[in-house]
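Hi everyone, sorry if this is the wrong subforum. Our group has a chain we'd like a structural model of before ordering constructs, and none of us has done structure prediction before. Sequence below.
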Amino acid sequence: MLRERVLPVATVVFAILAIWCVFVVVMNRQFVEDQARRAGQEISFAEVVKQSYTLERPVLPSPHQVAAELWSTTVEKKITSKRSLVYHAWITLSSTLLGFAIGSGFGIILAIAIVHNRTMERSMMPWIIASQTIPIIAIAPMLIVVLNAIGITGLLPKALISTYLSFFPVAVGMVSGLRSPDQLQLDLMRTYNANDRQVLWKLRLPSAMPYLFTSLKIAIAISLVGAIIAELPTGAVAGLGARLLSGSYYGQTVQIWSALFMAAILASVLVAIVGLAQTAVLKRMGARP
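Answer:
Right subforum, don't worry. Here is the predicted structure as tokens:
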């Protein structure tokens, strides 16, 4: 089992690292050669490769530079330090979790309303779908400015951007899940004289659990993306988005890549936690693995 799971992942990681190492030389070569030309020096290909991996501000940092930056900013810095990636990750995580909680709750309630009310489906579904066609990078600054104008600042504006992104997959997934029981099962519930609320709790919601957790995995990941995007137009000084922004201002590509990796690690952990919750809940419900 371990071999079946670890080997494919390790193969992909190895392939990505190999391609990355090749592109470090390809992307940084021009800068190294220009530096040598200005100094009036002849430089061999071996020296180009060596210098490409050790540039202070490379176009594409090498894997060991990103790993060293991650180690330095997560292990060697105090988590209360504003130079710690753990500190910045926590700022982003807090708005992610708040937005995810609001978005998931709103998506579930909306799905229940749509399934039980045909008018809600006809009036809301087109708007729900249309809402996701607006680029988040365009709506985020407007939303932040409007909320700041009415005195709402801090965590909530960023969380609302995450909410905007996360409610959609939950609503769509739950609508499919709540409608997944077939007509025979619904007829059986009617023969027991079950009302709509009993059908919801005893048949529709249990049937929707696999759909819900699949949607939650998508929602938690894009909630993190929303929180990072929300930090960009606010001029935030803390959070992974702020880290990316300051890195781009000062040409610190190593800082940018380390923040990206921290975001990827954070998303992986959050999705894994939702996956563990899914396994526990479905096992509790008697589902077979």
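For your construct planning: The chain has a mean pLDDT of 87. The first helix runs from residue 2 to 38.
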